[in-house]
Amino acid sequence: MDFQSVNFLKYYWGYMIIVGMLGYLIGSVSFSILFTRRFKNKLDIRDLGSGNAGFTNVLRSVGFGPAVLTMLGDFGKGILACWLGRIIFSQINLDGVPQFCIIQYGTYIAGFACLIGHVYPCFFGFRGGKAVLTALSLLIMTDWRVAILALAVFLITVIITRLVSLGSILAAASYPILTFFITYYYDYLGSKRSITFGYTIIVTTISTLVALFVIYKHKKNLLRILNGEEKKLTIASK
To answer: How many CA atoms lie within 13 A of 144 on its CB side?
Structure first.
């Protein structure tokens, strides 16, 4: 990691804490729980179906309409958190570190914190979802190229297998690999953007943490997939 990136981490930790807290609080708003309570006679989505507070379980257990609202909410809160992180870090200037890199750091930190909030929401007893949609919003806000490729991995897997969990696991696994290759070979070596080598290392590290976090939350699904017991995608009928 280059000297400028070390300086950034050393002197601007206060900004990181602020952005991280904002991202976490935004992520802690669980739309799957809120919409299920609204449309399912105040029932808790965590007591239905798989028990996961996420889009797929809402789709299976509650229906298409609430699932779409959940999808928009979970995706939108990730966009909001990343946007705030971007705005706050745009106020930072550090000699030797391109402004693009600084803004991206804020976006990544806010998005990752939002993801943690979604999985462990402080407003709902620290029991949330698996953060796939929120992770997608992070990908889109940080690098649309990586987002398109990871989404393609997800969609192709789901279309072929009808296993949302497998699509999520494979897309998550591809995330740090795609981030490194695009950032290093296309942006850094290809000089398409003004970035430092330290930037490549930092964002690859963050994307690896995101991937491991998402895969860890799917560990039970992975065991069911290996045992041939994972349920395929269905939609609840009214």
So the answer is: 0
